[in-house]
Amino acid sequence: PGNKNPTTKQNLQVDNSQTRKRSHSSTQLSLKGKIMEKLADKSTGAKPKTKKSKRKEEERQRKAASQAERTQTPSIFFGDSLDLENWYSCGEGEVSEIESDTGSPRRRSSSAPPRFNIHPLYQHVLLYLQLYDSSRALHALSAVAAMLRSAPSGFVSAISTTSINNTYTPQLSLLQNLLARHRVSVMGKDFYCPIPQDSHSHSFRSAMYLEIIISLCLYFLRSFYSAHVTAGPQDLAGNRAMQLTSIEVLTLLFSELAKVTGGSAKGFASFIYDVLSKCKVQKVVLHCLLSSIFSAQKWHDQRVADVNMSTVEEGLSEESIINLSEDQVDSCSAVQSQLLRLLQSLVVLEHRVLVPVEEGGEPMLGGDVEHVNPQQPMTSLQYLHGQPITAQGMFLCAVIRALHQHHACKMHPQWIGLITATLPYMRRILRRVVASVTLQLCRNLDNLLHQYLYETGITDVRPQWMALCIPPDLLLTVLEGITAIIHYCLLDPTSQYHQLHVSVDQKYLAEARSGILSILHTIMSSVTLLWSVLHHADSSEKPAAASAASTSNINLGSTKKIRQQILELLGPISMNHGVHFMAAIAYVWNERKQIKTPVRNKVITVASDEQLLLVELVRSVSAMRTETVMHTVKEVLKQPPAIAKDKKHLSLEVCMLQFFYAYVQRIPVSTLVDSWPSLLALLKDSVQLGLPAPGQFLILGVLNEFILKNPNLESKKDQRELQDVTHKVVEAIGTIAGSSLEQTTWLRRNLEVKASPQIVVNGTNLEADVEDLMLTVMEASSVTPSVYSVHALTLLAEVLAHLLDMVFYSDEKERVIPMLVNIMHYVVPYLRNHSAHNAPSYRACIQLLSSLSGYQYTRRAWKKEAFDLFMDHTFFQMDSSCVSHWRAIIDHLMTHDKTTFRDLMTRVAVAQSSSLSLFTNRDAELEQRAMLLKRLAFTIYSSEVDQYQKYLPDIQERLVESLRLPQVPILHAQVFLFFRVLLLRMSPQHLTSLWPTMITELVQVFLLMEQELTADEDISRTSGPSVAGLETTYSGGNGFSTSYNSQRWLNLYLSACKLLDLALALPPESLPQFQMYRWAFIPEASDDSGMEVRRQGTHQREFKPYVVRLAKLLRKRAKKNPEDDCSTRTLSWEPGHLMLTLYIIRSMEQLLPFFNLLSQVFNSKASSRLGPACAHNRAAGLYFCQKEGHKLESQKVFWSRARQNIEEMVEKDFLEGLIKT
């Protein structure tokens, strides 16, 4: 259709018939052609104000009439009766309700309408279709403004009470005619079409000058040049000046009216209200404001995308019709900030004149507090009649959208100012406004801080948006805005706003208060982030901070000032709403936890740096004294406020206690001691609350922390109370510790471990670990163990022994025993269970027992149980990490009194002397003896050097008795282990008498091995080996069959080889006796001299050491069984290290690498190939090539380290491995 052709727009001489014809064409869409060319001729002579203004109006209208050439383009109509969401798809237009009081004057049917991309927010815009002389109109309008400024009250009362028809001047009919023509023109008809004389004039006859000034100003405010009028920059600037001046006039007028209505009769207020609604002031102002926001957004998007959108969009868009010059859009902030002032004065005026609607009569806008989305489309917004501005969806949407515009940061302070100024006028919408505005401000604050961190290089995470042209004090302004809003809601507002004489409805205030408290955790999150950024800025060096300031667009300014503002915000909240404040701290604490913590095996998690800043923040708030913090934490634990419903696993109590634990660690001792009564109350209450297990662990942690810092209290009463509370807390943790146990039978009190997986303690993320495990267990079995039992045991192991020692003085130690007996009741069942799934609990329990055993007075509680466990045949089935704890326990068990070790010796003696009766199984009895011998060896191993030296003759006797029994490999293997322990635990001079026995037994075993191998070599033999009574089964050429017995013999061979290995690894001076026998076992440097000995007339080769002989035999055997070949494997030799690290062998060939190495390493020819180190000493000497002075010192260090390694290896030989389940 013709109207889509832009030339029709610029054709200013269109006759009526065309216009009429076009209006019936398929589209009625065009913005109201507004031909309000205003100009003024100054009247001279002083007249009363009323008259002067009246003359001005008349002359202005007359000029407008004389100058205008009128024309009209196709109309675009909008209506509020249309659902603006569906506006794009609607073909029928109506006269905008902004103009029409009566609704739509006419409706037209239409066929297939084209698509128009004009945003509904522009429905208020009026267009000039030709240029007008803005300077003259501006002159007249400025005069009105000047009068308003100079004598506001007189002028306002005059124009409010003077109607235009009280003087029958020649201008009256002209003025009425002009107003009528403008009304027709705005409705979309031609300015010059004939107007029936009486149809419109009556509607203006009774109008006051007030109404006319308001409507004219609004006309100017919403008027723009059409894009098809060739307007120069001066014209556009003139039009903008007109808009600004008209806003100024309205602002002055409304501010004054607000004052006047306050003291006048009721009728005046309703008259003003009628004028406002007749002129549609609120609606126009809101539309102007929203469209200014929208234009800024659209212009920003275009600039970012670098595209001229109007060329892309199909059909008509607002850009293609309205001349919003780039300059205009860019500086729309000028118009916007004036509009905000206007809106503020309008809100106050409206509050004065509006008759309050019956509460609940109107539906509340929107739903939940949380969800006012800055991204929501603006198309669905409609003006609701009879509602105050603050209750309009358009108002809240405008505020949130404007605050969301990061490219218009410079406007934010003014928007924040608008909100804080209008808070008392919000009435029932207060809760929704404060919640959504505060949330948006917090989002802005977060983003600014993330941007600062990103720009200064502290983090690599790019924020969602980067703000530009930021005012230098923006952070402070946002913070002050948040403070003002929150304090208004949370504190008594009468003190703040009393000068406004606004009565604040307590009901709405209470709603707003609960709204703010429900989002307090989000606010705290933002504020603490700011606090940590300030901490970063302060802690970094000054030059670095200066360079950061230059790299970032965001200026932190004076960190001290911002800190003060933060404390000013938080102080009153913490005083009046402490529980919510602390709960918010706990929530943020949980947010700030580290994903990965390096410290493992801590039941109580170590706080991250970010979390510790929270402690610092709370300590900085002057209202939060230590007693107050303790009292508040207690209240939070009793009744935690509902926070963050989405976090189903967040235990607020646990987070609160984690914070409190860190807090207690960081306050001075004197403060902690002074606040003991508050702490006691907190601990007492917490024990009774039935907190989740991690919470109870933290209570024990807090108690422990207090006792470490302040071991003794002044008064007896306090000390007794401390003991009682300790007793309760320990008992509670003990119950958690025992929760993985179950009763064996209904009546007996025996407990055993439930068969189900357990958790390894890892303090990084206790709750998450446990959650995952709970889920797997739930699927796996119906019986779920307490997932926290291992944690409870670990914690008790860490703190219990020391804690009880500090809390109970020396004369009160007796009171500890019943507590420990209870704890041991839970601990022993775990220690009896050696299965793999119980390993974590076993480890924790053994640690606990070990820590308790260090205190003499606890002995009664654990002595019998520990000894029974030690004698248990499965005792050595444990993890290597547990051995050191058992060594400590056995050492304490044997040394704290004189009888226990003697008992053990007696048991060994009795087991040996008891003759084999007819009824006992010989194997069982031998195993019993071997077991006791191993226990005795472990006891000696757990002691200090020479501690049991006086028992050595007895011990030697027991060993010799064991060796007297022939062919008992199981027992003899233990004897060799015992020999190794004695080498490590007795001084060389005490062992002199034992060496002959050791050497004899060693030679004996090597002879057995040799005979076994030679017998094996002779394939023709089918009977058993020649050694009498050797218990082996012989099977062709394969050596031992892997029968039960042959495995025992192999264990014996391995044990003997390990003794030789140890004797060679230890430094020669600590084994002087062995040096005399070395030649029998290993080849020395002189062995290859080839010296012959003449004996009984025959030549014989000299003696070959056992190692060489066995190596040769094993090599032969290995060649026969290539599938079992170990000859290729080699061991490496280092001084001070054991070579043989096997714990079990399945065939003799596995010893070949060991014998090979020994036959080479100490042999001079071989060692000349290996390197200059031949003898043991020289080899060790290689490590110490420093000067003589250091040599001795470094040798000591070397041997002490070597000895430690050797002891660790021997320790592992005791172990028998866990039972796998």
Care to describe what's here?
With about 1200 residues, the protein is mostly helical. It has a domain at about 710-895. Helix content is about 60%, strand content about 0%. The protein is built from 50 helices and nine strands. It has a three-stranded parallel beta sheet. It has a two-stranded parallel sheet with strand order 2-5. Strand 6 (about 740-745) and strand 7 (about 750-755) form a beta hairpin. Helix 22 packs across helix 25 (about 580-590), helix 36 runs parallel beside helix 38 (about 880-895) and helix 39 (about 900-915) runs parallel beside helix 41 (about 950-965). It is elongated and about 155 Å long. The two termini are about 85 Å apart. The N terminus is likely disordered. InterPro entries: DOP1 (IPR040314), DOP1_C (IPR056457), TPR_DOP1 (IPR056459). One of its GO terms (biological process) is Golgi to endosome transport. One of its GO terms (cellular component) is cytosol. This is DOP1 leucine zipper like protein A. Pfam families: DOP1_C (PF24598), TPR_DOP1 (PF24601).
Shape summary: elongated
Low-confidence stretches: 1-55, 61-97, 99-115, 309-316, 357-371, 762-785, 1019-1042, 1087-1095, 1165-1187
Helix percentage range = 55-70%
Structural class from helices and strands? mainly alpha
- Rounded to an integer, what's the Rg over CA atoms? 49 Å
The total beta strand count reads: 9
**Which whole number gives the mean pLDDT?**
75
Strand content: under 5%
- The largest sheet has its strands arranged as 1-3-4
Q: Determine the number of helices (DSSP H or I, runs of at least 4 residues).
A: 50
Distance between the termini: 87 Å
Q: Main beta sheet, described?
A: 3 strands, parallel
